[in-house]
User: What shape does this take?
Amino acid sequence: MQIDEKARWTGFWALDKVKGGHVRKYYEDDRQAYTRGSSVEKTREKISGLIAHAVKTTEFYKEFSADTPLDALPVVNKDTFRNHYEAFQSSVYKDAPDNRVMCTSGSTGTPLRMIQNQDKIWHNTADGIFLGAVGGYYIGMKEAFIRVWVNNVKKSSMQLLMENLIMMDSSSLSEESLQSMVDTIKNKKVKCLVGYSSALGELSRYIAEHHIDTSRFSVCSIIPISESMPVVVREQLKKQFSCPVRAWYSNEENGIMGIQDEQEEGYYINTESFYYEILKMDSDEPAEDGELGRIVITDLYNYAFPILRYDNGDTAIARHREKDGYYKLYLKELYGRRSDMIYDCAGNALTPYIITNNMWDVPGVKQFRFIQEDVTKYVLWLNGDKEQMDVDNIRSRIAPYLGEQADFKIEFVDEIPVLASGKRKYIENKCPCYQ
Assistant: This one.
């Protein structure tokens, strides 16, 4: 670290100590859990305490007994929160002056406002600092954050100075905008890049196509967020900047929940702040290790808005490890939202990497989106140089995975729009059978 970066790192912890050292304590808890796992017994106690609190202080859970086991509670989702918003709020923490409200982007529906109490905020901060350090980013490093900077998330000049942060707006990814990003990363000696996976992918593509020499850049950590990053893009970024590229698993309503393994494509999951169930795709029964299932989250420290058994729409294949009363959870594969999953003609789930990994090295392709329109109907939108794109080659890469009955079309478009949040959807399932 440079002197100003060390000063920020030291200053942050000094200020935390003055305020009671809460973040440092939770940071150390995260560090120990990363090494040996989380205590099974203490996790049970956290869950029991949260359930008892929810039963006593919220309208939604008041009909349950305080000793109700977790798996006897209903599985909820964003629609449940929206439809019963007041009923989920704890009477003890409602309108507390130190609460914080987080807002989801609303990429796939109406935005959701999530209330967090102070202890949850401290845990959230500690989780971010620790999992950032695992990915090579430390508080005080010069960071560029690539996202759509709407008013409710924009930072003040003072915040930017204190956090050593540069806001890079990804609402436009034109050639001019990408060149401006490259210049800023180089000239401002940015050390950490955090941003939407699709925006980082576009930046990587621009660097490759324009043969930009990045050997003198200062970047030493890249952390993709919000979307799955194709393996080939991750590998290309690692080579371009000679640094680790490790995605966070996170959302606005819960926080940073895990980080991608450096060698594998799986994720280490934070079991200190959250308890996870992996449930079957078509029922609320537990999925076996190695079986594709729905991620259901219990946020162990949000007492202002208790989140118990929250199906956030993501799917994964998990692997559990337990030894001497401690356990760890890994997501061997993280598929993302069910609406982004596709299925072959026989109804078998396909990893989205089948599409993304096969498309990233196709000459002439600037943007693409693969859409499943029905059980056997698929379309691939392509934007780019038609003269360079070999349609037969593209078809041969993808069609075998879909099945013999697949009606697979390829269409050329002038532009593929981003979502309102600025994220770019590569895979979309519009088939009514899978909604």
Remarks:
- The radius of gyration is 22 Å.
- The chain has a mean pLDDT of 90.
- The chain has two domains: 3-265, 341-434.
